[in-house]
Amino acid sequence: MNAGLPLFDLLPVRKSDPDTSREAAKGVNITMLESCVYGCLKAHGSLTSFEIADILRLSLVTVSPRLRPLSDKGLVRDSGVRRMGQSGRNQIVWEIV
After folding, report:
1. Percent composition of the chain: helix, strand, coil (DSSP 3-state, to 5)
2. Record: fold of 17-96
3. 94, 47 in Cβ contact below 8 A?
4. pLDDT of 58-96, one tens digit each?
5. In which region does residue 74 sit, left (phi positive, over 0), alpha (psi from -120 to 50) or beta (all else)?
6. Model confidence, pTM
């Protein structure tokens, strides 16, 4: 991490976002959330982001953005399987690598 960067450059918000968004972003522990999502997949097997959110009792907008970073780190992957969700649309089924 570059110590010379302003704090707002390190937060998951845009510079144009209101101060309230910056304050909320400071309270998000991404490492903890990624760990929860990974642990859910490890305990329950392959799941969609909707299923993970339901099991963890978190919102989809909290869970879904954690999957791509976990994938980028080589910890989870798109299984190639799609499962019909409550929306009537196919959803990615994620699995532990």
Report:
1. 50, 20, 35
2. Arc Repressor Mutant, subunit A (1.10.10)
3. yes
4. 999 999 999 999 999 899 999 999 999 888 999 999 999
5. left
6. 0.71
